[in-house]
Amino acid sequence: MDALELLQLNLLSPMVLAFVLGVVAVLVRSDLRLPEELYTVLSIYLLFAIGLKGGAELSVTPLGEVILPALATVALGILFPILAYGVLRRVGRMSVADSAAVAAHYGSVSAVTFTAVITTMAALRVPVEGFMPALLALMEAPAIVVALTIARSRMPGAAPGGLGEVWREILTGRSLFVLIGGLVVGLLSGKAGLAQVAPFFVEPFRGALVLFLLEMGTVAAARIRDLRKVGPFLVAFGILTPIVFGFVGVVAGTLSGLSLGGTTVMAVMAASASYIAAPAAVRIALPQANPAYYLGSSLGVTFPFNLSIGIPLYYAMAQAFQGG
Amino acid sequence: MDALELLQLNLLSPMVLAFVLGVVAVLVRSDLRLPEELYTVLSIYLLFAIGLKGGAELSVTPLGEVILPALATVALGILFPILAYGVLRRVGRMSVADSAAVAAHYGSVSAVTFTAVITTMAALRVPVEGFMPALLALMEAPAIVVALTIARSRMPGAAPGGLGEVWREILTGRSLFVLIGGLVVGLLSGKAGLAQVAPFFVEPFRGALVLFLLEMGTVAAARIRDLRKVGPFLVAFGILTPIVFGFVGVVAGTLSGLSLGGTTVMAVMAASASYIAAPAAVRIALPQANPAYYLGSSLGVTFPFNLSIGIPLYYAMAQAFQGG
Amino acid sequence: MDALELLQLNLLSPMVLAFVLGVVAVLVRSDLRLPEELYTVLSIYLLFAIGLKGGAELSVTPLGEVILPALATVALGILFPILAYGVLRRVGRMSVADSAAVAAHYGSVSAVTFTAVITTMAALRVPVEGFMPALLALMEAPAIVVALTIARSRMPGAAPGGLGEVWREILTGRSLFVLIGGLVVGLLSGKAGLAQVAPFFVEPFRGALVLFLLEMGTVAAARIRDLRKVGPFLVAFGILTPIVFGFVGVVAGTLSGLSLGGTTVMAVMAASASYIAAPAAVRIALPQANPAYYLGSSLGVTFPFNLSIGIPLYYAMAQAFQGG
Amino acid sequence: MKTVILRRVTVIAEALLEERLVRDLRRFGSRGHTISDVRGQGSRGVRASEWEGRNVQLETIVSPQVAQALLEYLAATYFEHYAVIAYVQDVEVVRGEKYV
Amino acid sequence: MKTVILRRVTVIAEALLEERLVRDLRRFGSRGHTISDVRGQGSRGVRASEWEGRNVQLETIVSPQVAQALLEYLAATYFEHYAVIAYVQDVEVVRGEKYV
Amino acid sequence: MKTVILRRVTVIAEALLEERLVRDLRRFGSRGHTISDVRGQGSRGVRASEWEGRNVQLETIVSPQVAQALLEYLAATYFEHYAVIAYVQDVEVVRGEKYV
Ligand SMILES: Nc1ncnc2c1ncn2[C@@H]1O[C@H](COP(=O)(O)O)[C@@H](O)[C@H]1O
Ligand SMILES: Nc1ncnc2c1ncn2[C@@H]1O[C@H](COP(=O)(O)O)[C@@H](O)[C@H]1O
Ligand SMILES: Nc1ncnc2c1ncn2[C@@H]1O[C@H](COP(=O)(O)O)[C@@H](O)[C@H]1O
Ligand code: NA
Ligand code: NA
Ligand code: NA
């Protein structure tokens, strides 16, 4: 399948179409309001399911296989926020607080985008290393801490609380907690445990993701009006950064020995911007930063870009890079 | 299977029994309160699933097959409210506002009754044209607009807002929006897309409907105390109208070339009374009308009648009519 | 499989691990808050599903088989609260109100523990009599009424309302109502009816239980701080009572002719303490009793004990007793 | 616009009592009420409904006499054993006749 | 701390009207509002939104003039056909300038 | 029935701050509070928690001194960067001693 076919296939997948439907619902001011409780429940379900599968897989994976990709993941999580901060501050001329805030988001990772690429790879029958959810967990926190440390060193006295509180906030935050929890449960109960709950956590997974993306569409659409405040620089940043970071992810994935599928997933992790863990941590630790910037760019630009065009693009990149 | 067996089978189906259980819960004042959020989520799930399947089916249906049934559907949607209005106003001697309000409900269609008949046909292994959900979407709006237009022409100045607002209200209303959205997603992503999400949207569908009907039972039961206010005329109207309209549906379905299953579904659509789209539109556009009348009759009388007796009755009618 | 292997298997099951994860979430003060609506929906789902399966099974069971176990169940439900009251009042030197309140909980039964043992038996492929859910329904109410009658006779004038209100409260209470409702629906619609809804109510059942236990963990953890108020006597009571009652359950199950699986389930019912029906009834009828005592012991001690150690223990007991 | 001064009684209680409190309100002459689901902490650390999560907050607009009688009854009936608080404020309403 | 006395207008209405009421509030000069989902009973036994369960309670802090105008408009527009009540109270706010 | 006049402080804030605000309340001497989930709009169009949907409304009944101190602290700590408003009203409570 060539890149264009893949793009078309992706754009017409129930996932992407459901997301678009959610956006349309907001644009035509439909009273389609999915209850917040559904959002909470589905995000816990998806993260726990991802973790569970990853953990069960991890239970049969030799540790040696995981070490290199894990190191690469952490390295990217430290490198990306520094790069992003530099660009935002120098090129974008944004304030220290806003630059650090946006950098935290782009260095970290979006669990839903991860879920989407896993589902896409499954639909394409491209095998993916089972331990990728563990890497997802590894990538979430470092970037946020690095970015907040930068802010703290540049604007002493302005940020309340210590970095300890930030770590605590991230680690006990819902998304990382459930993901790691799922990993541990999967690791301990193994493949036999997973088999018991597969009709709930494995088989309906894609469908649940479609429903979730319907709701995500309504959420992201509410961010579209931020785009005016965000300005052209951040919109460009929100499209170019994932492409560059995605390419770095392809290189890192390949070098650390991941398969085509694993490399694509690594690229998507690199390219995606957090919008659950990062906003919560940033809002607490860096209240001066304007949420319109970091949410507008990560949720209003980068998330839809990755979901629709990014995933096939990074897959094509990985094919090209590994093929060559 | 003869009509009586069918009736018995239907009355003892988990769907109908769950509905009865919900009614009983209210009558014995059980504290069984299903959260409203569940109601919202399940109704979105059911409508989206119905649309998805219909859309996927539509993607492989020659347009020619759909045209006649679609025209018939719209014709009924225009005819029914006019008929109903006449009867309510002349025979029932109800006010203009109340007559138009009730007429809007009986001309429009109940998505849950539709879902129930689809499920029943599947249980009986009677094939149904896959595009029926598209007809469901077509039948929802016209009757409401026609009835409100009648009211408007009879009581100038009394109704606020224009008909444009009514159309907008109906089209962006949750139920129609999700149904059409599901249709479009299904149409674009096709049977392959549907297959991906079948373990979530197709297989558990009947069970989810049972849970939904449990909740519907509690909702409908709350309308039973309205019956006193509603009076004997509206109760009779709520039983006779679906029988007459159901028969018209059988004729229209057969003439437009639908199969036995499709004709039965068409009859149920004709016989059913809206209680999601219509009440919302009527309450906004015709606040003078008494909700006890239109909700009491559509939800307290007609819905339970159709669910329990109506569906087997219309099926028997269709058999007799198509057999003869 | 010997007892230790079984214990290990149970402790590493997704169910128990999810429960522990919920406890950990509270201990590390994670913001993992599952919406209450999910709790309500899942508990209704689980009880209805249990009832449905039990009812469908009951529809093909000769009545004669059920009578002896049913009598045994009611006998235990009357005996246990009297025993428990004696111990709490004499040995524990607790007040009349508190003794009766705790006795009501331990005489009654925990539907979730029941669900857990059913799931465990299924995972071990140990057959269980299909009518056990009917026994569950039988065991819930009597103990509560007996315990409240004791309180009433010992402290005349102190308790408001009549016993009639207590019966009403219990029978129409959500948990018993849904369970009995499910039984009746299952009984009437039979195995054919159940088959229709199996992809929703049967197959995903275990996974839904895992999600529910995650939430139960957060709930039970909130009770752990009660343990200080509860004191060492009640903690000991909360561990020894289930062991003793569980053994009585093994004897009663075996004598009334139940299989190994059925006897284990009977033992778990005997050993488990209510925390849905009993607290609600006790709080209304005996407000003087301190909830920290009855919730702390039943939810903070006995539930986790049964879930982790109790179930394998009673199974081992039943094996030993029936083998000998 | 002519407004009338009436009393708004607010009762915050464990959810278990909702139905009973509504009956009480009616019995004392309240012609309507509004309920919201809330959560809270007070002097009573633990109660039966706590693990089910919620308190309810009932508000009813009534005449001063009804408010007074209601408050006395609630204090006497519930304050000792149940987690309940109640307070009163003045409110200005339009078309005061519908509340009394 | 210098506080300013303003008016808190509370509107309780069937959920269907939420969007419209918010538009009304804005139009009459409210600079912000807070909405909660509530349930209730009043003189109107039945209404279209009842079976969808909820009322909404809108609160807005405004100047006395805005409060007065708003109340008059709401009474004239909604009280006859819809399930709506409204009342006003004084509140003391910090940094009163953001509300007017 | 003897009632005491106390102060009801209402704080409406983005949900993210809930835990912190509860700690603040306690620290300033509040003996209890009630929280409801609400939604709202104000001068700040956008904030981090907005897309998670909710604000929280905290209410606490306290003595006038505590109310005053609390209000000052909240204004100084949160008003600049967070979406927070706060206001105070008098309330008449039964058994006032439990609140102070
Ligand atoms: N000082 C207070 N201010 C506001 N709400 C309170 C206060 N004290 C108690 N409450 C509410 O009343 C409920 C019962 O209080 P208590 O009986 O003191 O446990 C609590 O759960 C709170 O919701
Ligand atoms: N006396 C009252 N006190 C508090 N809330 C009320 C009162 N009367 C009516 N309400 C609320 O206003 C809504 C509409 O009232 P009504 O138009 O009288 O049916 C009710 O559903 C209640 O939520
Ligand atoms: N005038 C007002 N009346 C009632 N609530 C308000 C008002 N202004 C703001 N709020 C509430 O306070 C929150 C924060 O306001 P702001 O900081 O102005 O964005 C809003 O989301 C509303 O819930
Ligand atoms: Na990233
Ligand atoms: Na119809
Ligand atoms: Na027991």
UniProtKB/TrEMBL annotation, chains A, B, C:
InterPro entries: Sbt_1. This is Sodium-dependent bicarbonate transport family permease. Keywords: Membrane, Transmembrane, Transmembrane helix. It comes from Deinococcus deserti (strain DSM 17065 / CIP 109153 / LMG 22923 / VCD115). Pfam families: Sbt_1. The keyword Membrane applies. The chain crosses the membrane at residues 6-28, 40-60, 66-88, 100-124, 130-151, 176-198, 204-222, 234-258, 264-286, 293-315. The keyword Transmembrane helix applies.
Automatic annotation (TrEMBL), chains D, E, F:
It holds the Pfam family P-II. It comes from the Bacteria. GO terms for molecular function: enzyme regulator activity. One of its GO terms (biological process) is regulation of nitrogen utilization. SUPFAM superfamilies: GlnB-like. This is Uncharacterized protein.
